[in-house]
Chemotaxis protein CheY
Amino acid sequence: MSVASVISVLDDDPYVRAAINNLLKSRGYIVHTFASAEEFLRSTDSTDTSCVIADVQMPLMTGIDLLTQMRAQGSATPFILITGFPDESVRARALKAGATCFLGKPFAPTDMMQCLDRALAADDETRG
């Protein structure tokens, strides 16, 4: 029996956090939610997460900044970046920084699940 993956959801909007949390928990994932990148980094959960889903636009540290910092520290944790302001230049920056997926809000639950499946499959290959 496999252990459920731990997914960390970072968004400054509590409604978005709750919606993603509910979606992922309904699919059997263990979910940790955070209101900011700083809160995530202070948490012990930041080291055992299987995937990070982070908003691009957050106060103080953006999702792209967090991804860049974690990559600089040697973390290969997959990232899915989400934004209410999808823009091709932001998408390009996110993917260049190493995001597995980039979704504009609102997104369909099936799109999120496809991104998560891809991120976790890539993570399995990296660890494998």
Q: What stands out?
A: The beta strands are 6-10, 30-34, 51-55, 79-83, 101-104. The chain has one domain: 6-127. DSSP finds five helices and five strands in the chain.
